[in-house]
Amino acid sequence: MFFNRKKKQNKKKISPAPLAGSAKSNSCQQPGDGFDQVINKPLNRRSAVKGLTAGLLTGAGLLNSACSLTSGEAGKGLASLKWEEYFKGNYQLMTPEEKEATVKRLEKMYELANGGKIKISAKGAVKDVLYGYAFNISKCRGYMDCINACIEENNQDRNSQMQYIRIHEFKKGQMNFELADDNFYHQVPAAGHFYLGTQCFHCENPPCVNVCPVKATWKEKDGIVVIDYDWCIGCRYCQAACPYDGRRFNWSAPHVPENELTKDQHYLGNRLRKKGVMEKCTFCIQRSRNGANPACVEACPTGARIFGNLLDPNSTIRWVLENKKVFRLKEDLGTEPKFWYFMD
Amino acid sequence: MDKIKNSLHHRAFTFSGSRKRGYPALPIRIARGPNHFCGWFFLLFLASCSTPLHKDDGPMAKIRQQGANTVEYERISSDPFTLTLEKVAVTNAENDTLFFIPDRTGQLVAFPCNKCHTKALSRMVTRDPLAKKAHWDIRLNHVTGEELACTTCHSRDNVEYLTLINNKQIDYNKSQQVCAQCHATQNKDWLGGAHGKTLGGWAPPRVSATCVNCHNPHTPALEARWPARLNTVKIQELDPK
């Protein structure tokens, strides 16, 4: 009985056509509910072998066209690309060739689905680089240009209002986050207030990485904490583990108008995410690994945001760390964020 | 004796709350269980202390490891992002490094000034309040208003130059020297990289905005304005659809 059932399921999955025919011929003999009609259906040897062969043939054909290296990318349909994407491994375990292959597939899949062309990179960390960030709380004036730039650069969904950066407004004289106003609605800067932005701090000891049950998030060699969106199961353990509210859950697949889409993408960065995965600031990995500043740094009209290589003694970030009084949030946790705050 | 010892032990570890209702103490046999556990927990606690909570593997440790070695960047530079920019070199005397600022004279609409002005600034001064002003649209709102005049920054003798307080003529491309006379701390921060904006990218060569790229020298304060966007929650409150 068990053998029969297994065969029937196989047949149903791979080739619906012969099953439909046989089910129809049997349905008049055997009334019952759907389970009886499909699963518990009596099966003679001839029809079983027939169905199984047909199913195997179609399945093998699909597999062959999907996995064949000889058939060109153009010949593959969206479905077969999806098939290959589905069975790819964790990004950390991929060889450089596999990384290139998945990136090519993703580009092709976007082209087939939306018509436009995008460029996804799988560029690795630059040697001798450890990214660091400094935020001048005397300079930030709460203009929020950084958030707009971040949303545009990182292809975030325009409807769900998810933002990687938060700007908090504090009354001068204290820095209690519970008393901060995150919903300020007036001209800025308000008298007697200062502004402080938070985002992912890219900790050297990231607690979010330790709790991930599927190793979908990790710290890269250049210190950027990244997420493999295709490996993430959306359990949100990392969001709970982050002491800085740095991670965001993607409640809806990003819908970005074609003309607003950032076409230069990175596998670990701003490519279009799936629904139900974690995402966060990646220091704009698609930009920073090419030597550019993150979008927030570029957009800031006050120069409150400073970004650079911590290992370069001549970098501006090192000058800030060595010459200004810097502090980090919740330093006692030992998370070692690479995001410092300072005052003039 | 053993009984007394145990009860003393018990007293040291439990709160007095259980005795308030008139019970002499918890029966010793029951009390013994928790005490044993306390001991075990204490041992566990000690064991956990032997592994350091904070390993020295933060960014600072990596910086220390790197030492003063300069980094050689392979195939990475900020040049591609500043290709369209005319640049002028600036030396930071503090650590003897070089960086770039955007060229200023190319950005000025009416430069060189001798397109319109033939006389030196000192000879253009008029006491007639109704006389036409060449730069009628420029409003000087720097400091409180009484301290500065046109000739505080613009050379009296040559319209093509700025001036320092010792009458030394300064090129428009080195205008930061004029600002630095009063704003010495800002200048120090700017040379180091804590004040102002980096243009292009983080990778060398460093290209930074100069003072006048962000501050209008005649009205240098950044103005208050509405934020570029509103916070998520605020949008929902204003437009609850």
Quick overview of this protein structure:
The complex is a heterodimer of chains A (344) and B (241). By secondary structure, chain A is of the alpha+beta class.
CATH architecture grouping of the largest domain in chain A:
2-Layer Sandwich
Which of globular, elongated, flat, extended, rod-shaped describes the shape of chain A? Answer: elongated
| Radius of gyration of chain A, in angstroms, nearest whole number | 26 Å
Task: List the secondary-structure elements of chain A in sequence, H or E.
Answer: HHHHHHEEHEEHEEHEEEHHEHEE
Kindly estimate the percentage of residues of chain B that lie in beta strands according to DSSP. 5-15%
Structural domain count of chain A: 3
What does this structure look like?
The complex is a heterodimer of chains A (344) and B (241). Helices cover 34% and strands 14% of the residues of chain A. Chain A is built from 12 helices and 12 strands. Chain A has helices at 2-14, 16-27, 34-38, 45-67, 78-86, 96-114, 145-153, 207-211, 237-241, 285-288, 295-299, 316-323, and strands spanning 119-121, 131-136, 166-171, 193-198, 217-219, 225-227, 247-249, 264-266, 278-280, 305-309, 326-327, 339-342. Chain A is elongated. The model of chain A is unreliable at 1-30 (pLDDT under 50). In chain B, helix 1 crosses helix 2. Chain B is of the alpha+beta class and 241 residues long. A two-stranded antiparallel sheet of chain B has the order 1-2. Helix content of chain B is 30%, strand content 8%. The N and C termini of chain B lie far apart (77 Å). Chains A and B meet through strand 2, helix 7, strand 10 and helix 12 of A and helix 3, helix 6 and helix 8 of B.
